Amino acid sequence: MAANLFQAIHHPLSVAPGSGRLRQETDYEAYIKQLIRQVLLTAPGERINRPEFGAGVRRLVFAPLSPATASLAQTMIYQALTNWLSDLIRVEKVTAATTEPGRLDIIVAYLLRARGERRFLNVEVTV
Known about the structure:
This protein is α+β, with helices and mostly antiparallel strands. It has helices spanning 28-41, 67-85, and strands spanning 8-9, 24-25, 89-100, 103-112, 117-126.
């Protein structure tokens, strides 16, 4: 059986209970999902050295419920993911909907470039 050669720092940062070291992520798919969530939930200007990083979807939770808001969310998410993760994934489709006040449901369909596998990520952003 081949050893898993992938290893990255787990997000959110945490310490492994047994070793006292940073927790490692060895599942490539989980790592990519963590990266997508980071892009979605980081507001532009939040990172000091990369002020343009992020999609900033949390601020859309307070926007009026309308098709225009959902369309804006889809565009912002697609552009942010394409800009920051295009070497790892190919974004195929982004769907955003505000099903109830204070909640934004996001579905991202993407292709893992390293494996050629199609995946989906559902994210619910609430106030």
